Amino acid sequence: MIKSYFRFLLISFVAIDSLSPYILAHFYPKYQAISQVISELGEVGSPVYYGFSFFFVLAGSVLLVSLFGLVSYLKTQTSVWMSRAIVGTLASFAIGECLLSGLFSIEGGSTLSVIIHQVASDLGSLGMLGFPFLISILFYRKDRSKTYLFFGLGILSVFFALINGYAQLMDSSYMGVYQRLSMVMMYLPVVLFSSKLPKMSTIKAVYGTPSYAAVN
């Protein structure tokens, strides 16, 4: 069942993780999306503290479940090591940026919880930045246009991630905007990849049951 619906689960993850901050902000009158980062919704004392944890853990769980179907799909398209590398980038995001960030709050100090939250979030985001570059390699032999597309998206993702990091380092009054732009660029390759994958029935009809068939 997961093999059949992993595309839907990937899109669901993006929807949950992208929309939940706006839903939570509606119940946090003092929160300013332009100047505040999303993790501030999960600070101790926030009126949406538990909602923040719930949505982040939910998003991470949905993404992790989708990976069981994705890895099975990728094994019909490329080598085992490439399959694991691609899934690894998404798994690091699910565990670091979603699950651990949701379970360990920002408390406004240098506590263990804050350290775990920040390190996990950074490592998860770093893993996600590698996703479009690996996908560009995956498409290289069959469709160069998609290779260039995902490689370009990867460059843009890194660019906006650096801007986001600089904005937070400098405590910019628009760091909330930069963070959300960075998120859009990280999630766009996932959405496009999910929408461009051929169905398993199509692959079997064209290739039979190959182990290393190229992606259409």
Summary?
Helices cover 72% and strands 0% of the residues. The chain has 216 residues and is mainly alpha-helical.
Shape: globular
By secondary-structure content and strand pairing, the structural class works out as mainly alpha
Low-confidence stretches: 200-216
Give the termini separation. Answer: 23 Å
Task: Specify the helix fraction band.
Answer: over 70%
Tell me the radius of gyration. 18 Å
* Helix and strand element order: HHHHHHHH
In this structure, how is the largest beta sheet organized? none
Number of strands: 0
Number of domains: 1
Mean pLDDT: 85
User: Strand portion, in percent?
Assistant: under 5%
> How many helical elements?
8
Please describe the topology of this protein.
Layout lengths: L1 H24 L23 H26 L5 H24 L8 H18 L1 H8 L5 H26 L5 H22 L3 H8 L9
Helix pairs in contact: 1-2, 1-7, 2-3, 3-4, 3-5, 5-6, 6-7
What does this structure look like?
The protein is mainly α. It has one domain. It has 8 helices and no strands. It has helices at 2-25, 49-74, 80-103, 112-129, 131-138, 144-169, 175-196, 200-207. Helix 1 packs antiparallel against helix 2 (49-74), helix 2 (49-74) runs antiparallel to helix 3 and helix 6 (144-169) runs antiparallel to helix 7 (175-196). The longest helix has 26 residues, at 49-74. 36% of the residues are buried. Mean pLDDT is 85; it is low at 200-216. Keywords: Membrane, Transmembrane, Transmembrane helix.
Keywords for this entry:
globular, 216 residues
